[in-house]
Design a protein that fits this description.
about 475 residues, alpha/beta, twelve-stranded mixed β-sheet, 20 strands, globular, disordered N terminus, disordered C terminus
């Protein structure tokens, strides 16, 4: 979630070695960054109507382009007897079918815009650590730069500057255990990348010491890494780092218990965002609230409920279905992200007339399914409560409705009583709908990209039961 942003950092914008290469690479990137950032500075002051007008125009442009230059969409329009002009506003998007990861894999060449030279395409894949891996294309040198303009705009809200010193706790494996060095400087010494694979009770004091000496203004982190550090600091009564203004959390879902633990340990605010590598949605918190503000210039978001209809009531959950507005080289129109979110209630006190998501619940596979087919979000499990004091790590595994296996890495003080407490607590959360079996393990591995999964969901992916919206709901929303 963030949940799964393919943001790898400034280094993606940085040039390769030779000076010529540098000039060639950086120019389009810089100009794409500049144009987008300038637009976002301007649009900041737009009213709801102005934003809607911008979005409608961007959508028409995208659809015209897709119809003209992208064979897959030409076919989709023709099969339905439609032309781009039939879709005048985001609400009309319901006339078009969903784009799924399976469709993308089956139609990859036909989803590439024909009016770009082959050299402009950069092949990208998502992790696929859970769910279906998906491959698609960026515009070389341009897509990541546009992304950065949005990220920077978002981080401006907490005062981030390019010159700031940052500690980066993401999925990196750096340093050498032999020399007791678990970090590495980058970006002219401004960023300190710290290894995700060496954080243990033995090495954490060295991490903390190093961070204190580095005097970072921000910490960029996967929530699952920040909590390892945070938990250690809280338990050992270690004071926060006085220079840190905010912890910037992305790429993984941020659970409420993680937010409160990180806030407590670091004594500053957590700022999180939700986005994806496919560049179809980006939403972040603001100065005043922890709701996710969806950038209307970035993409159009529909929330689709389990009944296949649009979610319109704040507080209700739906799957995030998105239409990206910033990557015409490989258009995603009504793309099913397989993420679930709760519709927010606006407008926010910050004054931005953006649509809001209350919370992002994570991937559809991050729900535990009960015997009576209810979905229980992993956000319901609070690991930062006394019940889990003697648990170093846990992970759920589900293969059958109403049954989960819980893998636990014990801490030294763990006893039979802890097991009983945990089972009692989970029984309450699951309201008797799930039988829990506990198994003790030595460790819980991270994914290939260094992320952490609290639930491995082995039930068929499409549990949401979201079906193709046929005549019935088309007339309703149209
Ligand atoms: Zn706000």
């Amino acid at each position: 979630m963030g949940v799964r942003m393919n943001y790898r950092g400034l280094k993606d914008l940085l040039p390769e070695s030779s000076v010529t290469m540098r000039a060639l690479h950086i120019l389009p990137a810089y100009s794409a960054y500049r144009t987008t950032y300038t637009l976002l500075r301007r649009s900041r002051r737009w009213s709801r109507e102005e934003l809607a007008a911008y979005q409608a125009q961007a959508l028409s442009r995208l659809l015209e382009h897709a119809y003209e230059h992208v064979p897959y969409y030409r076919r989709v329009f023709r099969e339905r007897g439609l032309v781009p002009a039939d879709i005048a506003t985001p609400a009309d998007l319901a006339l078009l079918p969903f784009l799924t990861k399976e469709i993308i894999q089956a139609n990859l060449p036909d989803l590439k815009a024909r009016n770009y030279p082959e050299s402009a395409f950069e092949y990208v894949t998502t992790g696929g650590s859970t769910g279906i891996p998906v491959g698609f294309y960026y515009e070389k040198g341009v897509s990541r730069a546009r992304e950065w303009a949005f990220m920077k705009t978002q981080w401006d809200r907490v005062g981030y500057r390019f010159t700031d010193r940052c500690v980066v706790l993401r999925g990196y494996v750096v340093g050498s255990a032999k020399e007791n060095v678990y970090w590495k400087k980058t970006l002219l010494g401004r960023w300190l990348l710290m290894s995700s694979h060496h954080m243990t009770d033995e090495t954490l004091p060295a991490y903390i010491d190093r961070i204190r000496k580095f005097r970072p203004r921000f910490i960029q982190a996967y929530p699952s890494m920040a909590v390892i550090l945070a938990r250690y600091m809280v338990e050992h009564d270690i004071k926060p780092f006085p220079t840190v203004k905010a912890v910037l959390c992305g790429s993984e879902n941020l659970y409420p218990w993680q937010r409160s633990l990180i806030t407590e340990a670091f004594g500053c605010r957590v700022f999180s965002w939700y986005g994806n590598s496919e560049q179809t949605v980006l939403a972040g918190e603001c100065e005043e609230s922890t709701h996710y503000h969806i950038f209307p210039e970035y993409g159009i978001v529909e929330l689709i409920g389990r009944d296949g209809r649009p979610v319109t009531t704040p507080g209700e959950t739906g799957e995030v279905v998105t239409t990206g507005l910033i990557n015409p080289i490989f258009p995603f129109i009504r793309y099913r992200t397989m993420d679930a979110a709760i519709l927010g209630d606006g407008p926010c006190s910050c004054g931005r007339p953006y649509p809001l998501l209350d919370t992002v619940e994570g991937r559809l596979q991050e729900y535990i399914v009960t015997k009576d087919n209810r979905f229980i979000s992993m956000t319901a499990v609070n690991m930062h409560s006394g019940v889990f004091d003697n648990v170093a790590q846990f992970q759920f595994y589900q293969q059958q409705e109403g049954e989960v296996l819980m893998r636990i890495v014990k801490r030294p003080g763990y006893t039979e009583e802890d097991t009983e407490q945990i089972l009692r607590e989970l029984g309450k959360k699951f309201e008797g709908g799930v039988d829990v079996t506990i198994r003790f393990v030595g460790e819980i591995p991270r994914t290939r990209r260094g992320k952490y999964q609290f639930l491995i969901q082995d039930l068929p992916l499409d549990r949401w039961g979201l079906s193709e919206c046929e005549e019935e709901c088309r007339t309703e929303s149209g």
